[in-house]
UniProtKB/TrEMBL annotation:
The lineage of its organism: Bacteria, Bacillati, Actinomycetota, Actinomycetes, Pseudonocardiales. It holds the Pfam family Ubie_methyltran. GO terms for biological process: methylation. GO terms for molecular function: methyltransferase activity. This is Methylase involved in ubiquinone/menaquinone biosynthesis. It comes from Saccharomonospora xinjiangensis XJ-54. Keywords: Methyltransferase, Transferase, Ubiquinone.
């Protein structure tokens, strides 16, 4: 299966190769970590102390750190399909309440040893859904991992249905992100893919509809401000009250 011209294995391979430089590149965006913390704050509003949280698509651990900074004594299972990203994340200092797992999100419901199916209070998925082969399959997997009434917080680039966000995204990628990738790593393939993947991904309204079609309820949109306005969105949704996140 392809994702904007790359087969799934190629996308993961590109993330593996980019992993050693990834933190440096995202750090060039002064709002990157602040936006992650703001999105993690929506998780914190929905759960209490000691919550069990799945950090889906954790990358090198920036989203994991955002969760730790906003939640009170959480237990975090951080998962990513890129072994390279997980390796970088594991080398950082973490409390014992954080566990990193190299696995595809769609495989998690079938991993009973992980013990997360139907037990997670919240899922935080930052920059994940755009990079999976089948978003609907992934949403079904995430819904099955949440406890009844658990919250899903999606944080991703999703271009509003207006010309300006699309023009701004292309201008930023071509003038800053892709050249910075070349300077830092000498390789721009992943970041050219990321530029295209955002342009081809759901609009915010389409993403909300996708969540409703997947059986989630109470879907709400939280757009970013500044130059990210119309480009970066956080969307919250709630798993229905049936067993293991399924409809009654």
């Amino acid at each position: 299966m392809t994702v904007t011209g790359l087969v799934k294995a190629e996308v993961m391979g590109e993330f593996d190769r980019a992993a050693p430089h990834y933190d440096r590149l995202v750090g060039l965006d002064p709002g990157y970590h602040a936006h992650l913390r703001s999105a993690a704050g929506l998780v914190a509003r929905a759960v209490g102390p000691g919550a069990r949280v799945l950090d889906a698509g954790c990358g090198t651990g920036a989203s994991t750190q955002a969760l730790l900074s906003m939640l009170v004594d959480p237990e975090i299972v951080a998962v990513d399909a890129s072994a390279g990203m997980i390796d970088v994340a594991r080398r950082k200092p973490w409390p014992d309440s954080v566990r990193f797992v190299a696995a595809a999100i769609d495989d998690l419901p079938g991993l009973p040893a992980l013990g997360v199916a139907g037990t997670v209070d919240a899922v935080f998925a930052a920059y994940l859904l755009r990079n999976v082969p089948d978003p609907d399959t992934t949403l079904a997997a995430l819904r099955g991992l949440l406890r009844p009434g658990g919250v899903l917080v999606l944080h991703d680039y999703s271009l509003a249905e207006r010309p300006l966000p699309r023009l701004t995204w292309t201008a930023v990628c071509c003038s800053a992100i892709i050249p910075a990738a070349w300077l830092v790593s000498g390789d721009t393939r992943l970041y050219r893919y990321l530029w295209r993947s955002v342009r081809e991904f759901d609009s915010p309204s389409r993403l909300r509809r996708r969540l409703l079609d997947a059986g989630f309820t109470r879907v709400s949109e939280h757009p970013a401000r500044g130059w990210h306005r119309g480009i970066l969105h956080t969307i919250t949704a709630t798993a229905p009250p049936g067993p293991r996140g399924t409809a009654p």
